[in-house]
Design a protein that fits this description.
This protein has 462 residues and is an alpha/beta fold. The protein has helices spanning 37-44, 57-65, 67-75, 84-91, 103-116, 130-141, 160-170, 183-191, 206-211, 219-223, 227-234, 236-261, 264-283, 285-298, 329-336, 357-364, 372-378, 391-394, 425-438, 441-457; strands at 5-7, 12-13, 22-25, 30-33, 50-55, 78-81, 120-125, 146-151, 174-178, 199-202, 304-310, 316-322, 382-384, 410-412. It folds into 2 domains: 5-258, no CATH class; 264-457, no CATH class. The longest helix has 26 residues, at 236-261. Keywords: Exopolysaccharide synthesis.
């Protein structure tokens, strides 16, 4: 699967200056913004003209049955990922988007920044009175925001040419269109080119939330990614079909596309990862329990250690290990960097004073790596793959070394079964690049078998 990431303002490779990029999701057959809220807002408000739509599971379902809407979506300049469904669809092919850029959260932040820049906004859509109520809320929370005009999406939208003339006469820099999917996107696709505004956004129910017509879910529900359940409970009759049937239909369609576009090796490798990690977690439960007890008996602190690592395509994830060091190990690392026994980027020391007695045993026996089976189940790692690198290591990579990030990191791999820490950094890179370019299920199975011998010998484990 080929991943292409672009600066969506200029359709050129992403630049270090902005970091703004887009990612193609095969499961959706769409290219979506892959950036945090701040970066996305900066890009949307940058000089130039653009149209932007929010894409969620419901939008994708409408695309599947409405060709004209689908064409309008593909002609938009910017598509923003909205909701847990899109995130899950991305994960089906190993793609992790930086943020959920839903309109309800993004629009107030965007308008606050627009106000600071002296830009004005026109609110168009909703039932009669909704745009005016939303404008009142916005001027209360951000008095310096210029509301260029308001218009409802019913009687006020009957004559589109009159709407265009009114918006242009207002001098609005930003136009918020809230007429629901697919009407708002179809209107923008047809009339945005006639507008003088630099940004035209289709925002769904955002004006209803601002006007107080619809109550948002509590923050705890939103953090749990369950806002759709709250909305279903508030409006069961209107939203039951969209959420209960629509979400299942969306995920089934996304899964079908993901399987069709995923190489057979990737599917087989994932099946092997899930099978082995599940079986290992069950059978090794006593080992997990005994190790956790031993760690807690020797030192205070949690038995598990979480550390940020760099995964496939440079995505960060929290890797799990049994804690083999004292709790202040990270703070003390700077003191002992000069004592590394390994040349190159990766630090390793046979006589690291931060390692506990239990830690030395579980490192030599590789028991400390076992919690990474959970990372495998999550899809963040594979059983076989390159060593997951630390962010500070990746920051020092020579250009050639980035090729090892083309595949998921693994619990075991070619370098691990060839001597682990005894292997130089440069040689490790060559091994990982060779694996990334020629991996097969047969090779993975061979590495797994060789891992048992490597663990038994303990060579290079410290």
């Amino acid at each position: 699967m080929q991943h292409t990431k672009f600066d969506f303002l200029a359709a050129t490779p992403m630049t270090p200056r902005t970091g703004t990029k887009t990612t193609f999701l095969p499961a959706l057959d769409l290219t979506l913004v892959d950036a945090d809220q701040g970066t996305a807002i900066d890009a949307l408000l940058a000089p130039g003209r653009r149209t932007a739509f929010f894409m969620n599971a419901h939008c994708c379902n409408v695309m599947a049955r409405d060709r004209k809407y689908a064409d309008a979506v593909r002609r938009a300049d910017v598509l923003l990922p909205d909701g847990i469904g899109v995130k899950l669809a991305g994960k089906m092919t190993g793609d992790t988007l930086a943020a959920n850029l839903n309109g309800t959260d993004l629009i107030p932040l965007l308008l606050a920044q627009a106000a600071d820049m002296g830009k004005s906004v026109y609110l168009f859509g909703g039932t009669p009175g909704t745009a005016e109520a939303a404008a009142a809320t916005l001027t209360t929370t951000m008095p310096h925001l210029k509301i260029a005009g308001t218009r409802d999406g019913f009687v006020g939208a009957l004559d589109p040419h009159l709407v265009v003339a009114d918006i242009n006469a207002s001098g609005a820099d930003i136009v918020i269109v809230a007429m629901g999917v697919p009407m708002q996107e179809m209107w923008i696709d047809r009339y945005a080119k006639q507008l003088d505004a630099s940004l035209c956004l289709g925002v769904g129910a955002a004006l209803d939330f601002l006007a107080g017509n619809v109550k948002r879910a509590p923050k705890l529900v939103r953090r749990a990614k369950m806002e759709w359940v709250w909305r279903l409970a508030m409006e069961p009759k209107r939203l039951a079909k969209r959420y209960l049937i629509g979400n299942v239909t969306f995920l089934a369609r996304a899964a079908t596309k993901a399987v069709a576009q995923t190489p057979k090796h990737h599917i087989a490798a994932r099946m092997m990862d899930v099978s082995i990690s599940t079986l290992a977690l069950i059978s090794l439960a006593p080992v997990f329990a005994a190790t956790a007890i031993a760690i807690r008996m020797e030192t205070k602190g949690p038995a598990l250690f979480r550390q940020t690592r760099i995964g496939k395509n440079g995505e960060r994830f929290s890797m799990l290990k049994f804690r083999s060091m004292y709790q202040d190990a990270e703070a003390r690392q700077a003191e002992i960097l000069a004592g590394s026994d390994r040349e190159g980027v990766c630090f390793k020391s046979k006589n690291d004073p931060r390692i506990t007695r239990v830690g030395r045993f579980i490192r030599r026996s590789s028991i400390d790596e076992l919690p990474q089976l959970i990372n495998v189940l999550r899809g963040e790692m594979s059983i076989v793959g390159p060593r997951p690198a630390l962010p500070r290591e990746v920051a020092q990579y020579p250009a050639r070394a980035f090729g090892r990030l083309a595949v998921k990191p693994g619990i075991t791999g070619i370098w691990q079964v060839s001597g682990r820490a005894n292997i130089s950094f440069d040689k490790m890179i060559e091994m990982d690049l060779a694996y990334a370019s020629s991996r097969t299920i047969l090779l993975d199975m061979l590495v797994i078998l060789m891992t048992f011998r490597a663990v038994a010998s303990g060579r290079g484990a410290y």
